[in-house]
Amino acid sequence: MKVKTCEAPGCRLLFVPAHPRRRWCDPATCGNRVRVARYYQRHKD
């Protein structure tokens, strides 16, 4: 069992990933914030 740290900025939670490629503690909150920030940076003028 491998414990990982959430990769979202500002999140300090630890979690046990259900899938080895999982990067966030909760894809619905932390993952969404990261994806929205990435989208904003790509489409920013």
TrEMBL record:
Gene3D superfamilies: Jann2411-like domain. InterPro entries: ABATE (IPR010852), ABATE_dom_sf (IPR023286), Znf_CGNR (IPR021005). Residues 3-43 form the Zinc finger CGNR domain. It comes from the Bacteria. This is CGNR zinc finger domain-containing protein. It comes from Lentzea indica.
